[in-house]
Records
---
Amino acid sequence: DEYVADAIDGLSKQYIRKKKGGDQEVVASKGGEKFSDVFLTSSRGVSAGRVFCPKYRSLKASQKKLFWSRILAALSYSETMWDRKSRFREPGMRDVETGRQTYSEGLMQVSYADRLYYGCEKIDWRKDKSRAATSDAKTIFDARANLECGVRILGAQILKVGSITYNKSYWADLRSNRPGHKRFKKSWANQKKSGDIAFCF
């Protein structure tokens, strides 16, 4: 919860805007939408949140952050069973940052290319390339860095389409047309049972 809340707060000084063609870019100064507001106040953030949290619009900022932390927890469990050293080989994909086969890694199954695409600066191939593939020391396995990268990716997706479950989602388990989506829904149901997001319903 703390990592996700910190990640959203940390984006309050950055802005994101759409580029021609529908992609997004993060910028350090004004000229777009404040990245943290994509989650907390934007109409697209509300639209994305209400699918899983019907009362999302009326929630306090702290409650919205907790909700998103639970969404990411459900997604991470669905994708990796909370294994921070999980690795998945992406067939036929080449990582533009490493120049090698793409692997999705860590709690949020991100890749080194996301440093370029989403500004995940704490995930650093220059430091990791000399380390063993499953080394604890790899930056991509750092829980905070990996979750922060996931928050950035999710925010960019919300800005683009106002949804986290559309059929081209970054994460396969969020795609409503994929078998893994049932696994995510089951994981989300378990998060709801915790009771600490009762304010959503």
---
Amino acid sequence: MTILENPPPRDQEAEKRDVREECDASCRQLKIKSLTDWADTADPEKLDTVRGALPYVSLSILLAIENKSPGALRVLFCTKSGGVVRRDDPLNPGDEFQVVFRGSQIANRGIGAGNLIPVDKEFVIIRDPSGKETRGKRKPRNDGRGGDGYYDPSGKYIPIFDGYTIKIPAEADKSQYTRTSSRSMSDSGIAGPGQTPPPPKRLETQQSGRGELPHSTETPSRSMLNPSTANPLRTPPNQGRRGAERTGRVELPHSPDIVYVGDSLTVGYAYNNREQQYIAKVGKRVSEMAKDFDQVLGRTPPPKKIVLLGGTNDFYGRAKYSDVFKIIQSMVARVPRGVQIFIGTVPFMGEYYFINDKNLKGLTAQQRAERCRSVNAQIALFNDEIREHYPSQCIDFNQALASPSIPNQPDAKYIPSGKRLGDGAHPGREGRNAMSRLVVDSFSRTA
């Protein structure tokens, strides 16, 4: 007689995780199908309904909708004077569309003209609200996000925001772009048709939303984890324990019921709290934070509020956003009832940090800039997941500290770059205050 052994008991946490992942995948497909179907409707009332939900839709889902049903994003985010925008309508020379992102900060940051205009339209004219026009030519995006975008004659990406207008040019406008292109390339040091490329110049300045900041020849103070040597680097400057009245610092609530878990960014904005109130260390990755997280949950009594911010060191070490997000999900799933959990989005890293990082020796300036774009592209996708899955628990540090004019880059006001200014990765005083204000506001909103 064959004796059947009892199968080993299945890990309950693994079973719950599988169910959550299955539900997430089903919800994602349902959202894509619903939004795609509604973008095809001619019923204005239904369109108004779906447009009202757009602020809560992640960038990955928006891009999936456009991939499944080309022209859907134009229906959702564009208006046309004297007519209704329809997905299948042909675009003719002279057609103009006004961009209206309808309160979606995710779309305002992540959607470009290349997502709204069909691939067969090589040229566009983009006009900002002040009336300034820029002629753009369609090219593959070089910021790590994939897809196409429109670039001016000097090779600079042309972003679009609320209130911008996109026009399909006539043939005369296209030839004007070509003439301007050769002249602008020559003036800017970029090789035009029939020209010899100039010798590479040493990168000395970084464009930012607030002007150009000189690059230091010194390596800035850094506090990221070096993935090759696993040495945590120094804490950013100006983060000593000085009095709030001297620094104009925004104070976080002092309470043993509140715990901040994270890496050097948490050390930066939460350093005014007693050590038992934050468990953060420079160079930490989310897998290490998970162990700290379990210690926090094991306290007696447990804290009433936990603020979690992690992922910067993982992305710097070239981790994939999906892997980092899964660890965050598993941490949030372990939070018991009665404990409020807040999850922060990760700020973008500045190109200055990569240009001056000695750990990247052997890479050219162009390769370092590409590494920066790749890292920030993963950060953007990770943040979209946080916003989508935890809308009421999300503290959007990224949105507050991001550049208003340069896609996937920090605002120099909050994350400064330059000698004696900052390393381009850690918030300065203004940035730390902005982060603290967001935490205080989130506590007040959920009180």
---
Amino acid sequence: MRFSKLSSRANTLGATPRPAGILTNRITRKALLAMAALAALANARSSMAAGVAWTAGTTLSGDSDVFNAGVPTYAYDLNNSAQSVNGVSFTGSNSQTALGTDVTLSGFDGGNYPGFGTGSAPFNNLSSAYKAVLTGGDYANGGTPVTFSLNNLSANHIYSVQYWADDSRSGFLGRYETLTSTGGNSQLITYTNTASAGGLGQYSLGYFTAGGATQALTARGETRISV
């Protein structure tokens, strides 16, 4: 989700939430699954879906940030650039409405922006592939929530979803977004850890048991959202 940044890492402009990347894995009842990045929701079964349990935001540090346990389901970045990070293959996209058939997006009325990265450290010390995942994102104007529907899930399976937010340009310290889902907890993640160029954002891992083919996630930014 910057979905992803969604990558949706996806990325953020101004004070908006934006995912830098989204990665989803499955933990089956038999094999103990895990997922990372962005997941799914089925409209007919959405009322049965359990909430997402988000972990505390973790500051970006390197390729090992990317969760690779369990059975990979899908992973996307919003820099429209196919990349492989820590053994996880990200599909690139710049759409504001859908990431293939796997993720349905709504509320991103601002467009896609590929310039949330910078040539300054510590961001520039990340691997070229990881920077490519984090650099682009969709965004929405205003503080309106945006929704990610994770599709193509299997009912009663446990999934993990990883969501990134990052804006390493200067002047964005103090901006953040909040991740929520019906029945789940709320988790704040920040875009950067410094007012100077080159700062690092955060990611959060979420876990849920699919009640059907889809799962919905919501992100809300301070004044503008982007993923």
